[in-house]
Specification:
- Helices cover 63% and strands 1% of the residues.
- It has 312 residues and is an all-alpha fold.
- The protein has a two-stranded parallel ribbon with strand order 1-2.
- The chain is globular, with a radius of gyration of 19 Å.
Length: 312
């Protein structure tokens, strides 16, 4: 049963659930446009500040690609099924070394068992709240590339040592790794990106403004996103308490929370509602007087304070 049916009528859900190919194309063009725009900005005005800005924007839009792959996993990115599958794999997942079918299988289990012992994402939320020192260490490992290198090495080892043998692997392992042939398709997508940069005379851009953000800024904002969604919330089956929506301003949406990913409580209530309609769903729930019962944070600063509130 869709959790949102306890609070919304079938007509209200239906009105919010329509998909659009035009929206799907627009979101992908926006995401890749920001990526190439940030790279172009650095090449036009090469300096440390424009380089840092490009790394942050590209890393944030790599998270954007992950979010659009998440949309495709719910068949909500495009109305046309084959477009949803093809774009979700080749234009969203493969470039960031992710696999849509594996992710969908893993992620739907998360929706079914949210914040219970059977939730495969519980490993991401259970450590919170933690101490400020512990959170700081995690974020430092992310931004310095330590987390990214460790995860990518694990992907390669899983693909070529465990391909076809997943016995003993956790759900989290399976979400981050996949069989050798699938990994090779992710490599192919990145070869195409590398060739594009080479064709315009800047082959090193793939290393500096694609791989570097993927290993650093992307990992940090991915962690912050995970914390915001389920970290330091109720260990409960109440969908208004076990998931958090974070109200985000323009800069947070640019650098931390692209494509309405901050409306996570609403997404869990009706997971097939396209992301661009989640603000409307949020407003509808508020109008029904549910605001006081919903877990809502006013910005990612508040989320990180809640997630690091443990004193020892």
């Amino acid at each position: 049963m869709t959790p949102g049916k306890a609070y919304l009528s079938s007509e209200e859900i239906r009105a919010l659930s329509g998909r659009s190919d035009l929206w799907g194309v627009g979101l992908l063009l926006h995401c890749w446009g920001l990526i190439f725009g940030a790279v172009a900005l650095f090449h036009l005005w090469p300096n440390p500040l424009s380089f840092l800005l490009a790394v942050m924007v590209v890393g944030s839009r790599q998270l954007g690609l992950a979010i659009l792959m998440h949309e495709a996993a719910h068949n909500a990115l495009f109305r046309t099924p084959w477009l949803n599958a093809w774009a979700g794999e080749w234009l969203c997942g493969r470039p960031i070394i992710a696999d849509l079918p594996e992710y969908r299988h893993y992620h739907l289990r998360h929706h079914r068992y949210t914040q219970t012992e059977r939730d495969p994402d519980l490993v991401l939320s259970k450590p919170f709240p933690t101490t400020r020192a512990s959170l700081r260490r995690k974020l430092v490992r992310d931004i310095t590339g330590q987390t990214g290198l460790k995860l990518r090495a694990a992907q390669v080892m899983f693909a070529f040592k465990m391909a076809g043998d997943t016995e003993g692997a956790t759900s989290q392992d399976l979400a981050q790794a996949f069989a050798g042939p699938v990994l090779l398709r992710a490599v192919l997508a990145n070869v195409v990106l590398f060739a594009l940069f080479w064709a315009v005379g800047a082959w090193w851009t793939w290393f500096a403004l694609w791989l570097l953000p993927l290993l650093t800024w992307f990992q940090m904002v991915l962690r912050i996103r995970n914390i915001a969604e389920h970290g330091a919330v109720a260990f409960s089956d109440d969908p208004l308490k076990n998931t958090r929506t974070t109200l985000a301003g323009p800069l947070e949406r640019l650098f931390l929370a692209p494509y309405w990913v901050n409306y996570h409580l609403e997404h869990h209530l009706v997971m097939h509602v396209p992301a661009y309609r989640l603000p409307r769903l949020h407003a509808l729930l508020q109008a029904k007087g549910l605001g006081a019962r919903m877990t809502v944070a006013r910005g990612y600063g508040q989320v990180l304070r809640q997630a690091s509130a443990r004193t020892a």
